Amino acid sequence: MRNGWKAGIAALLCAGMLAGCGTSVDADASLVYVDKKGAVTSVDVENLDANSYDETEFKDFVDKTVEEYNAVNGKNAVKAEGITVEEGVAKLQMKYKTAQDYAAFNGIEFYAGTVVDSLAAGYTYDTDFVKVEDGQVTGTASKQEIYAEEGLKVVIIRANTNVQVEGKICYVSTENVRLAGPDSVSIRSGYTPEAASDAAGTADGGVEVSGTEDGTAAYDGTDAAAGAEESGSFETQVYTFIVYR
Hints:
Helix content: 25-40%
Strand content: 35-45%
Order of helices and strands: HEEEHEEHEHEEHEEEEEHEEHE
Strand order of the largest sheet: 4-5-3-2-10-13-12
Distance between the termini: 30 Å
Number of helices: 7
């Protein structure tokens, strides 16, 4: 469905495609956040041309699209939790009851659950992995190591975006991934996990991740590859595996 509602929003904003509850997610960059119960919150942030968009039309379009989705998939399957336009920047926060709702509503491949259940769903971990401790790469890892470790959860996504989980990352696939903190990654073409250890949270463009006063997750910072996102697309052929507990 991403090619429908997201493309429509892009047309309204005339700014290209957006990058695309009780949980409080404070983000200055586009983000997908998965909480411990598997619910998903997304924050889409986009610079606007003030002469080329209609804020009211934008909000009405989002509300209508959410209403149409919920009519088919159940009440509150998707909720628009906040739409703001300030100083030329639009921020849209959405809440999804399940990972399946996020995938269906946005039209991308996305999975969130246990590693065991992901294998039953048909996912195979046929890619390169690294071990992660406290947001730092500590060595390479095999899929057999991941399979053997009990109690692990995973987010699997095929998109260029930022992802944060409620937990600590233990393993991550290596292609196009930069670690942004102990619970966060940024996915863009050419990124590597090893480069993240020095880049995360720095003035040269890493992403700083911190907690809020009430203990909920917060993503605060700017993306090192803002230009990469503009020149590339949200969708990608690369599967990113974020394994955590």
